[in-house]
User: Fold this.
Amino acid sequence: MRVNHEYGRGGALTHLAAHDAHRAKVFGRCEPKTRIVPFMALVAQVMATEPYASAKRVFWIVDNGSSHRGKRRPSTV
Assistant:
């Protein structure tokens, strides 16, 4: 028998955060869902401020959450 489970968030919010360890600064935002659009809004929020806006390179280390994951590649096995 196959059973599907629907996960209901019940109105829970998602907190997204970015931490600049060098400057001891935390950027954060609350969103109703965790998807690529809220994640990219956090990236835009950080990248709009100095020194990131004028930096030649900015490195991001992200966890394995689904909000910043690309489309799954078909298996070749």
